[in-house]
Every structure is written in structure tokens, then in C-alpha cells.
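Budget justification note: compute hours in this period were largely spent on complex prediction jobs such as the one shown. Inputs:
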Amino acid sequence: MIHTLAFYLFAVLVIASGAMVVMARNPVHSVLWLILAFFNAAGLMVLVGAEFIAMLLVIVYVGAVAVLFLFVVMMLNIDFAELRAGFVKNAPLGAVVALILLAELVLGIGAYRVGAIDLGSPDGSAAPLLGEGNTENIGALLYSRYLFLFEMAGIILLVAMIGAIVLTHRESRASRGHQDIGKQVSRRPEDATEMKQPEVGKGVEL
Amino acid sequence: MTEFFISLGMSYEWAWFVATICGILLIALPLMLGVAMIIYMDRKVWAAINLRRGPNVVGPFGLLQSFADGLKVFLQETIIPSAANKGLFIIAPILTFTVALLSWAVIPFGPEAVLADINVGLLYIFAVSSLGVYGVVISGWASNSKYPFFSAMRASAQMISYEVSIGFIIVCVVLWAGTFNLKEIVLAQEGHGFGIVNGYWFNPLLFPIMVMFFISALAETQRVPFDLTEAESELVAGYQTEYSSMSFALFWLGEYANILLMCALTSILFFGGWLPPLNIDLIPWFDIPGIVWLLLKILFFFFCFSWVMATVPRYRYDQLMRLGWKVFLPLSLFFVVVISGFLMIDRGWG
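Corresponding output:
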């Protein structure tokens, strides 16, 4: 009972906030709706018993990726009217993309139901379970059966990260903006200040 | 607690529902009271280190100062700037406050006293604390004023930077304990040091991790050496500049609830949570309820927070970023590798 109610609550909220992402006039509001959608998707994951994935969704997407989105959108000075102008023109393209995604989902779930791919059985009892909880299972599978794919994904991400750093990093030794921390830390009060004990009523000569 | 309500003649669902509500109230109300008292303690410690008296007028020893402040704030007018984005401006403090309370659901106060005993407790705390940044960012943006906006940008950069190292530190503890469940992490620390000391801090590999966690916790809660988001000499009051009355108080309460959470987390991850500090029964301290030990540990770490606040000057922004990315990130990564290597040798290759 409460399970079903929670499912419909989360599902409706995901779809509604997904729609609001597209409909919102202000890009910052769009990002915030997107965050709400992520969050409710995490709720759906908890309902199907995938609590580890749910937490990762919140940590990675809500906690990191969406913060950067928000950061960028807030910093940009976007002309809202211009942004809205392309809506009608681009609507058919958007519809096509949406249809393709829907078809892929239907195909994927259909194939899973039929049992064409080895993910476990369609009735919900999943592939070889080793440990007790969700986290142990994912860990055990990732580091044994899918080790190669897992490491590949890691290496691709590493290459992407290094690429981004190489593309944006500029070696600049300009006098402004460069801080030599070692020099700052090794600076002592004796080097920088001088103690004077002036008599009452007399000043200090510098 | 569910059993108690079942014994009153309720069906299981209702008993569970009422028990959960009662549990939430049992945690949230003392927490709010605790936040009020901890603000008083903060000011007293700060005053003592500065050779001042601190609050001493309202009530005996000034104990009721926080309540007087709360009442004052409650009676003030709520001002919403005309240029502000109204909805988000109101949501931001509520979000901060809610998120600060959410994490307490999984904190174990004793072997049985935990509201939600879930398998991914530590990940849950990590996920919820990563939501904390939104209150700050949204309030900064919605205020439509430049100081809050600067503060919001600083806050988001700062919290993302230190969350990375906190993540690696958590990985180290989880590797050693072998579970994400906070209750089991505490139980795994029983007699960790030669069967005498309860707590991971005794472990030479985990002690530096503990120090790093404490410093990252300061940065994550924006306490003093890292309080660039509300650096009053540069940014007026940071993201709280445009807020008044209860919305301001909600930020304040949320901030202190977060600080208490970080203190609780330090005690649970490294100092054995509700367990007494030593595992030997010299004096009958196993008879002292666990929650007293946990509270004492939380108070100790809160004292350390206040102590740091009273003695350390504020970091410069580039120093903050350097510490996060160039010192803590490589160091915590190094410790993840060392600790997993050690555990692999120690616990066999299987």
C-alpha cells in the first residue's frame, strides 16, 4: 500500500519536474527542477531495493554534477527571450530524440523481459548474488566478472580528466596572481616586523 | 519502539508510523535544544579564550541567552528584498535547515537507539551533506545582490573541494570496518587498539586520516579558518546578508546542527561512538548509558571547533583551494592505497 503510494508520488514528481525543466522560463529554475527530478529518481531506486545506486545518484548527480550546472548557469548572463525563441523551431528535433529514447527503452526492457541478455531472470531475481546487501553484490560483481569493463571505464574517465586539464591549463608565471606558498609559510615575524618601545609622549622614527 | 505501540493495540502499520514520528521528534526536539545550548557554549568558550565574560545576563550564567535571541529573532519582521526571486529566497533557508536535520536519521545513539538502521548509512550521510550546498547557492542567487552571490560561489567551490577528500577518508574507514552501516562501524571499533582502546584513532594508519577528517569537517561546515563564505570583512554576512527574522534563524540553526553532526560523525567514525573510551572495566563505566559517552565525545569535538574558531585566523581563498586539492586530495588518496594494501596483506589475499 505505502509502497505503491510512494512509487506514484516519486514517479509523478519525476515526470512533472522533468517537464518543468523544459518549460521553466528561467534557466536556473530549470536546473533546480532537474535536481528535483534526480532526487525523485533516487527515491524510485530506493523503492526497488537498489539503495546503493540511489545514494550514488544523489552523491554524483545531485551533489556534484548539478552543482556545477547551477554554477555555470548562474554565472552566464543568458538572454531568456532569445533562449525561448528557438523553442518552436527545435521542437520537432526534440520530439525525434525523445522518440528514439523511448524506442530504445522499449527495446531494452523488451529484450530483458524475453531474456535475450544475461542480466538475471525477468521475475526480478537477479544475476549471481554473492554477498548479503546490495553494496557487497555490486562490489563483488564489479571486481570479478566485470573487472575489465570497470577498469576500462576508469581509464576512459582518467583520460578525459587529463585531457580537460591539458586543454585548460596555462602555464603562467606572471607577477600577478601567483602565490609562492613555501615562501609565505617560511616567513617569520622577526623578518617582517620590528619591535619599538617608545617612551610616553614620544613618537617612533621609522 | 514499534513493539511498544503494538502492545498498545495498534496494527503493525500504524505502530510503525507512530513509532517513526515519535523517533523523529525524539531526535529533532532535543537537537534543537542542544543547538541552542551549543551556541551558548560556543560563545562562552570563545569569550574565555579572548579573556571576556561572554553572555552572562539572561538567566543564571547567561544560560538563557540563546532563547532570548531566538525570541527576538522570532518577533522581527521578515523582509524580502523587492529584487529577490521570492520563491527561491524563501525556500533556501528551509532547505538548509531540513538538510541539516535529515542526516541525524542514521546516527546511532546506542546499540539499539537508531531511527533508520540502513545498510548504506554512511553513504546516506555523505549524500545528504552534499545537498547542503544548495541552500547556500540558492540563497546567494535568489537574493539578487552581489555579496550573497560571491559567497554562494565561494561556498559551492569550497564544499565540492572538501567533499572529495571527505569521500576518500570515508572510504578508508569503510575499508577497515567492512561496512557502510554506522552501527556496525562503531561495533567494529570495540577493542581496536590491543583490545583495550575503543576507537580507530589509536590506529597509526587511521590517526592522520582522523586529523584530515576533522579539518575537512571545519571546511565543510564553513567554520572559522575556512569561513570565507561569510567573511564579514569582505562579504558583509555572505549569503545571509539579505535575510532577516526567522529565515535568518533557520540558517543559523541549520549551520549549528551541521556542526554537531560533523562532531557526532568524528566520534562515530574514529572514537567509538557510544562505546566508552577504554575497553577495560576499571571503573563501572559500562553501566553509564552509551548516549552519555556519545554526548561527551560530541561536546569534546565541539569544544575543539570553538577553540579553533577563537585562535586561528581566516585562510585566504587560494590557500583554502590549495589545501583541499593539492594537500588533502593526494594525501587521502595515498592513504586509501596504503590502507587497502595493508588490509589485503593483513586479512589474506582471498
